[in-house]
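Data card: per-record layout.
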Amino acid sequence: MTEKRTAGGNIASYCTKCKLVLDHAIVAMIGEEIGKVKCKTCSSVHKFRSEAPAPKPEGAKKRSASKKMDPAQAAEAHWETSLSEAKGKELAYMMTGKYRVGDVVVHSLFGKGVVRKTYINKCDVLFKDKERLMATAG
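The structure for this 138-residue chain is written out next.
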């Protein structure tokens, strides 16, 4: 026969503060269900939990942290990929030069970059740190 639980009774519950299954006093009932309990060790009041939560897989935090890159690292990785896939010529950047998508330009200040998109008298060039809009002859 199951014992009827009532407010003021004792029950074993997982304490969210102590992080252990300990003896608790029943504080509130919701119908036939236990609502809140009070730990007899630390006196914290919390929802009733019959057992400890399942442990998280080992290294779960490590994997998610390694997936996230800071923006500078992501930009550099994108630049390296674009540079390796570039099929155009390597040219010294000049405002009077004409460039095509895929050309590698070498700028005196920004270093190597890859032409990503061309416009009339301008082009987008992806450098190691970020993409820049550069002037061209057309």
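Known properties of this structure: The chain has two domains: 10-47, 71-135. The beta strands are 10-15, 20-30, 33-39, 45-47, 90-92, 104-107, 111-119, 122-127, 131-135.

See the next section for split statistics.
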